[in-house]
Amino acid sequence: MPRILLFLGFFLSSVSLWAQGRPPESQGPEFQGSSESLLNRLPEKVDTFQASSFYLGNPFLIEEKTDSTLEHDFFQPDPAFKGPFAHANLGNLGSAMSPLVYENDLRDGFWEGFSLFDNYKLHPETLPFYRMKSSFSEAEFHQGRTQEDHFLNVRFAQKFGKSLSFSMHHIRIKHAGVFPNQAVSHIGLNTGLWYHHPNGRYQAFLFYTSNRHQQEENGGYDPSGATVENLEQEETFPVFLDGPASHLQKRIAGITQF
Question: Cα–Cα–Cα angle for 95, 191, 68, nearest 5°?
């Protein structure tokens, strides 16, 4: 037994002495007396995605654009659940909604008083313009249970020469609904041209915004018309209204220069 313990002690001490010694010369000069870590010696990757953006509402606030799809609520297409607080809707994508938490909106100028589809609208002040060397595109698409149920969100920008840039934001939401007369459709288009003089003394923004909202109205479930047959599927549920729909369309065009 003492011989075995002596052998193990000699073996462990030999390994410790080898680890503390200098490496052989055959391993190359990079291991000789260099305190630089391996991570610092790795070549730096060149960032080929160089783009920054700003909004028409505040052109002096520049934001760096990152090449990532894991941001801006990418996996949550429903606008009712985007933002810091959720909104209540009628249960299907694109339906009229109202805030669950009180929101004090400071509105300037004319307001038509119709705010059920505010979260589906595009606004000129939220149109992004990009500082870049070439074109930029970003697309988001979500498919529902049928071809009529989908969500599309597209951004595109193109630079023409050194002084002219084009930017476009398009959104499309369609949902056939679960119950009769519940289909919705929202189509928004935000476009703009940005001219900036090479010496930086003059800038101009020409923009056009269009929003169109359509929603069928069924008035809710009608229990007086319920039968065993029409309650088997959601598509045949009896409702109060058959045919009415809400339509809202708004277009804005203008120019900003300074």
Answer: 75
84 token code pair: 């810091």
User: Tokens representing 44?
Assistant: 């730096």
Number of domains the chain is built from = 1
At residue 142, what is the residue type? H
pTM (predicted TM-score):
0.72
Q: Is residue 22 part of a domain?
A: no
Which residues form the domain of 222? 52-57+74-257
Domain-embedded: residue 170: yes
| pLDDT given for residue 192 in this prediction | 96
The candidate with the shortest Cα–Cα distance to 250, out of 224, 198, 214, is: 214
pLDDT at 33: 45
At which residue do the structure tokens 């609904």 appear? Answer: 177
Distances (CA, A) of 157 to 53, 76, 122, 131: 10, 24, 17, 10
Where is average pLDDT lowest: 52-66, 67-81, 183-197, 225-239? 67-81
Q: 3-class secondary structure for the chain?
A: CHHHHHHHHHHHHHHHHHHHCCCCHHHCHHHCCCCCCHHHHCCCCCCCCCCEEEECCEEEEEEECCCCCCCCCCCCCCHHHCCCCCEEECCCCCCCEEECCCCCCCCCCCCCCCCCCHHHCCCHHHCEEEECCCCEEEEEEEECCCCCCEEEEEEEEEEECCCEEEEEEEEEEEECCCCCCCCEEEEEEEEEEEEECCCCCCEEEEEEEEEEEEEECCCCECHHHCCCCCCCCHHHCCECCCCCEEEEEEEEEEEEEC
pLDDT score recorded for residue 223: 84
